[in-house]
Please model this.
Amino acid sequence: MQCGDLVEIDYPGWNAKDSLTSAAELKRRWRERKTSSLAADQSGVWRFRDLLPPFDDLNSIVTLEEGNTPIYELHRSERMLGIETILAKHQGMNPTGSFKDTGMTVAASFARAAGYRWVACASTGNTSASMAAYAARGRMRALVLIPEGKISWGKLSQALDYGALTCQLRSDFDGCTRVLNQVVRSTPVYLLNSVNPYRIEGQKTAALELVEQLNWEVPDHIIVPGGNLGNSSAFGKALLEMHHLGLIGRLPKISIIQAEGANPLVRLTRSKTKDLVPLQAETMASAIRIGNPASWKKALRVLEATQGRADEVSELEIAEAKAEIGLEGIGCEPASAVTLAGLKKLAQQGFVKRGDMVVLVLTGHLLKDPEFTLKFHRHELFAGTRNESQAGTVAAYERTPVVLEPSADAVLDVLQRAEQR
Ligand SMILES: *Cc1c(COP(=O)(O)O)cnc(C)c1O
Model:
């Protein structure tokens, strides 16, 4: 613990072939647990506990039945982009509305088993919502540091309702992280940021569940949004472990998409330097507004190991992609929509091909950030910004509510005009 770098959990036993449970046996076990009524089996995370750090007392895990999230086929996007199969793994369908729950159940369980009274995190919103919920379930107290004015009301209201002590610092996410690192050095609170290795382990299960749902068929591409880069690291670690254990025969390419204004990883992959250069992050996709991502080394290794790409998308591209996902009847928060916007770029580059199977990881629920969505549909999102003049390109997706006199004729008139459009 001297290098100052992040901890990663390794499973040395898995290298000895004879001590391994066979891949077929693991698959059988995971399938069988689906029919069990044990809380640990009903969790889409703990069902895969054979690939998690051993936890002694399965009856005392802190769980909200996380995981078990759906995969939706995006037929409209398939038609528009001319790509055979585009699937959305919707991690926003977790109990608190984001993928953070899959890591939080593991980390909170270990925190409680270790006897901590307080857990803490710095957050762009979803981590605090998730941590507050799991702390409450585990009867621990939660300290949340969030950037003042820069997180969505949906996420903030969750942390408050779940009873967290919430501090809004006059800073950004990176500033909150700095302060928290000082706080944990002077008082015994348990740090639940994504540097927490148990969170990464729990987040791996999204990839396990995904491939299991696909009947162990490996997609050609998995596309993940990149903020602090914990999620992309977890997906990569899971797939490398699955490959190593013989659960899958090949690796998908994992690509990471950032917002143009919060693109430190993209810059790194395009530069000759070996170290990530932190930057002042700016994007309306607040969940990925991070300029100094903690897990950049792990993410870089995932890109290299799976031969994926890092790319960036503009605010307009994010808004358009989000509206398109909405039109599939699915919806997601802005940070998740970078995956579809990124897919368009990767397809243009010829990196994703017509016959490919692509999985987009939708990280958060539409209702996390209703303000963004309302502003978009009211044509207010880009008003007064440097994007204002280009905002016409997304106007086709705007569905401004119409105010009418309470008469059937007025409604029928609107209906008729919509039919003709
Ligand atoms: C946390 C979060 C991200 C970013 O994930 P990282 O692990 O920080 O890269 C993206 N989207 C949503 C909705 C999130 O909550």
User: Anything to note?
Assistant: The CA atoms of residues 121 and 193 lie 5 Å apart. Residues 71-96+199-396 form a domain with the Rossmann fold fold (CATH 3.40.50.1100). The chain is about 40% helix and 10% strand.
